[in-house]
Amino acid sequence: MAFRRALKRTALVGGGAVATAFGLSQLIEYRKTQRGLARLAQVAAEAELKVPFIDELPSRQAQLAALTNTEEFDVLVVGGGATGAGCALDAVTRNLKTALVERSDFSSGTSSRSTKLIHGGVRYLQKAIMKLDYEQYMMVKEALHERANLLEIAPHLSAPLPIMLPVYKWWQLPYYWAGIKMYDLVAGIQCLKSSYVLSKTKALELFPMLKKDKLVGAIVYYDGQHNDARMNLAIALSAARYGAAIANYTEVIHLLKKKDPQSGREKVCGARCRDVITGQEFDVRAKCVINATGPFTDALRKMDNQEASNICQPSAGVHIVIPGYYSPDNMGLLDPATSDGRVIFFLPWENMTIAGTTDTPTSVTAHPIPGEDDINFILREVRNYLSPDVEVRRGDVLAAWSGIRPLVTDPSSKDTQSICRNHIVSISDSGLVTIAGGKWTTYRSMAEETLDATIKAHRLSADSCKTVGLMLEGAKGWTPTLYIRLVQDYGLEKEVAQHLASTYGGRAFDVAKMAQVTGQRWPIVGKRLVSEFPYIESEVLYAIKEYACTAIDVIARRTRLGFLNVQAADEALPRIVQIMGKELDWSQEKRTEELEAARKFLYHEMGYRSRSEQITKTSEINLDNHEVARYKKRFHKFDKESKGFITTVDVQRVLQSINVHIDENALHEILNEVDLNKNGQVEIDEFLQLMSAVKKGHVSDSRLAILMKTAEETLDQREPVSVDRSGGGV
């Protein structure tokens, strides 16, 4: 315990204060000492804890049985996002009997739709300094402490990321430099790496896509980056391993209450729950209930008290994913002042490039949809910072999503309209504990504060917090070179092995053991779900062990395919459903239902609709006469009978003539992307609309356009040369 207290004290010491007290050599030694203390605190914390399910997680059915049959839990957490999972992990490691229910999947809401950064908030620090706001300053300091802890406890899922701030005016260079240096100073001993200034030449060398005109130089600072949905899942699974009863797809219908014999008031004593999958209802009794439902905070508060005022002010943040070649592999970009005053990040993530976010008021919904205006706003801002040589096209948006940030007002504040910049913990008259607001990065400290308040208010007997330095699911056994063992021991492709190591950490071997033999010389095992991504079929089976219940769970949160490329996810779905259907004994009706639900998710929530509508929204054909003639000629090479449309039969015939073979189902999907009226054929007007959209940049990588162009070129090369044109011959 002394180690943990020492760790907590030293974590709050600023680097500037330390540097003042000691010389440079002493400072280096001091930092080593603090890291040693942190490691000892972690060892001490973990040594005290028992892990009932260290080898095998209990099944979802076993978890539901525990929820149903346990006479009374100490704590029932409602909400399976980062904060809810953090509360469950904090509670169970304090030796409290803990339950958690989530009406959808773990991390299905805001926690999987973030900017993927673990950060203190550069812009918050700027506001703190400009407005002399101590609360804002302490919020940044706390977040930087939590950033360091999160990078430590889940090294497989997170890593430091350098972020470049380009400067286009000389006077801004010292201004931004001072601000970023202050960010380092506030981080103190937990500064990831020191920030530095770059010349124009060096900045362009590191970020060649950057706009050169008027560039003065750049400043590079460091923050953390993570796989948010997998991180959320790691927290929840860690809680399960320590003995918490957790269940996704379990919704709260109403809160249970009983009269307190001392005060005579009604007190919350649990919840009536329903298994969303089977419809079965049951009671979960608990000494206290924690409301950690994010944007849905007010819905549960009103279950407790219909008169409760709303405290959540939801704000939508849209992100887009574009190909990885738009950014360097290991360098992000920050636009500190967009045209409307917002901040835009432009970051490499999972071999793609993520850009966002917007910040607009919205209504609370379980299925937020990215708007076309927001997508185009992000694209415009990105274009402002990239070289004119780099054409950022609307058609390059591979996926887009909207996340709802649950900004809150403090219910105990006299001014109920003032938005709380941090998080709030409140306890109702009936004992319902609500944790709302805050940031992804600070989930752990929010959980600690929530449990401290809960234990005090409900007089629970509990140990002190043990989550500082507590390694999460997969962290044990992970090393930066773990992927090499996966390649050597199992015969996996290097890219697949690296992906498994960075996703599952030390548990990657469990996934590799489940992988099927490919029947090829190399790789020996590991059949990919889609060719261009390193996700393999055994991950679907392992996802079920991680409580995946639907195909959406697999494409969105166990793998991140739906967030990276909606078309690739759509292609992988039939095989995913087939694997899950066999393992979970789904009927054909259930399999069809799952496929349709997943495609609806991709269409609405992951931006497939916006992507596919780029053709329909450009009904005006913007082609000159020469281009129209050229594309009609190409079309008629496939439409030999001049029907005015082509089908899979027409395309297959042409492909066979040039010895190209494509699976019939794949060919149907290719035509379906362009078949606007969904009548099973592509008309000449639809083809011209496609080519017009390609010309404008609204559509890129159209498989039909590329296929028809390639086939035409091959056919033209095969046409016999006429005697007249060749000069006659002998």
From TrEMBL:
One Gene Ontology CC term in the entry: mitochondrion
Subcellular localization(s) per the UniProt record: Mitochondrion
GO biological process: glycerol-3-phosphate metabolic process
Keyword field: Calcium, FAD, Flavoprotein, Metal-binding, Mitochondrion, Oxidoreductase, Repeat, Transit peptide
Enzyme class, spelled out: oxidoreductase
Chain ranges of the EF-hand domain: 626-661, 662-697
This enzyme's EC code(s): 1.1.5.3
Gene Ontology MF term list: calcium ion binding; glycerol-3-phosphate dehydrogenase (quinone) activity
Cofactor list: FAD
Pathway where it operates: Polyol metabolism; glycerol degradation
Any Pfam family: EF-hand_7
Entries under SUPFAM superfamilies matching the protein: EF-hand, FAD-linked reductases, C-terminal domain, FAD/NAD(P)-binding domain
Catalysis: reaction(s): a quinone + sn-glycerol 3-phosphate = dihydroxyacetone phosphate + a quinol
The keyword Oxidoreductase belongs to this UniProt entry's keyword annotation: yes
InterPro entries, per database record: DAO_C (IPR031656), DAO_C_sf (IPR038299), EF-hand-dom_pair (IPR011992), EF_Hand_1_Ca_BS (IPR018247), EF_hand_dom (IPR002048), FAD-dep_OxRdtase (IPR006076), FAD/NAD-bd_sf (IPR036188), G3P_DH_FAD-dep (IPR000447)
Family matches, as CDD domains: EFh
Family, per entry: Belongs to the FAD-dependent glycerol-3-phosphate dehydrogenase family.
Biological function: Calcium-responsive mitochondrial glycerol-3-phosphate dehydrogenase which seems to be a key component of the pancreatic beta-cell glucose-sensing device.
Name recorded for this polypeptide: Glycerol-3-phosphate dehydrogenase, mitochondrial
Upper classification of the organism: Eukaryota, Metazoa, Chordata, Craniata, Vertebrata
